[in-house]
Design a protein that fits this description.
334 residues; alpha/beta; D-Maltodextrin-Binding Protein, domain 2; five-stranded mixed sheet; 11 strands; 37% helix
């Protein structure tokens, strides 16, 4: 499935807002113009200077990073790895807050409503920052209610199954699903997984039940327990396959994963339309100052350049964006 989502409108930062008192009228109509202009310039300079000073001292307390999925999934893992390293650069702790539900729109909405002071940011997946806007009536605007900080990484999905599924490969699975309509169920966490499941049904002319979850971790728990049959989930669940807890049939990328070269692509089974990748980015609420965004971006860039961070993200099947693309402007174009 080729994503054609359109380019997101460029998000612009708003200047620091300060309530200025209305100037008093002079008692005399002979008030010197030069004196008036001097007073006005001085009054305007005070709040501007306070904004600059505030940005220079930021941050002075811990920062919250909202992850719009339940703990334990790939977005949560990435958030915690980034938070630890970004905290070192910023000199303050970055705290993860998991706010799952409604295909990531609950946590994303909370991030949109936060004060634009740099103390609440979000790790936004493509699901929440783009796809949800095309399917739900949201309490926030996916294009205009956020200020981009930096792209983080892209990844693919795999079609996982409970070990009791008898199909040996994707071709046999499709055959079984066709012969047994509505007998199987698939767990979906987020709009990307939901779209993949629906598109897979359409492309293979099969029918099965979609079961919503708040995150990948609870989805996998039920898959292992046999409560559901299938799941489109990220590569970070491959360790469960290696231990024999689940199986994997195919990957949605154009090429096989380096961390799982034995798993074929959907393209190899004659389904090139199932090619699909998703991205993650860091966002702040609309109106966050440019100076604060610059500090957060610098911390994110330093984190993504850290060998320990890179190793961990590659280990869970993430592809980090190149350094030249780790800018607010690049993320804002999506």
């Amino acid at each position: 499935m080729k994503t054609s989502l359109g380019q997101a409108a460029t998000r612009q930062s708003r200047p620091c807002r300060i309530n200025r008192p209305s100037p008093k009228r002079p008692y005399s109509s002979q008030h010197p113009r030069r004196r008036f202009l001097g007073l006005a310039a001085g009054a305007a300079a005070v709040p501007a200077a306070s904004c600059i000073a505030w940005a220079q001292t930021y941050p002075t307390r811990p920062i919250t990073m909202i992850v719009p999925f339940a703990a334990g999934g790939s977005t949560d893992v990435i958030g915690r790895v980034l938070a630890q390293r970004m905290g070192r650069s910023l000199g303050q702790t970055v705290i993860i807050e998991n706010v799952g539900g409604a295909d990531a729109s609950i946590g994303t909405g909370r991030a949109a409503r936060a004060r634009p002071d740099g103390y609440t940011i979000s790790l936004g997946p493509m699901d929440a920052q783009v796809l949800n806007g095309g399917f739900y009536s949201l309490q926030y605007d996916v294009l205009s209610d956020f200020t981009p900080i930096s792209p983080v990484a892209t990844t693919q999905f795999l079609l996982y199954a409970r070990t009791a599924m008898l199909a040996k490969d994707l071709g046999e699975l499709i055959g079984w699903l066709k012969a047994n309509p509505n007998m199987a169920s698939i767990g979906v966490q987020g709009m990307a997984a939901r779209l993949l499941a629906v598109f897979f049904q359409r492309e293979t002319k099969t029918q099965f039940t979609l079961v919503p979850y708040r995150g990948t971790a609870p989805t996998m728990q039920d898959l292992i327990a046999g409560q559901i049959d299938l799941s489109f989930s990220p590569p970070d669940q491959l360790p469960l396959m290696r231990t024999g807890s689940i199986k994997a049939y195919a990957v949605t990328g154009d090429a096989r994963l380096a961390v799982a070269p034995n798993i074929p692509t959907f393209r190899e089974f004659g389904l090139p339309s199932m090619s699909f990748t998703v991205w993650l980015g860091l966002f702040a609420p609309r109106g966050t100052s440019r100076d604060v965004i610059a500090k957060l971006n610098a911390a994110a860039v330093a984190a993504l350049a850290d060998p320990t961070v890179q190793s961990r993200l590659v280990e869970i099947g993430q592809e980090i964006f190149s350094r030249e693309r780790q800018t607010p402007e690049v993320l804002g174009r999506w």
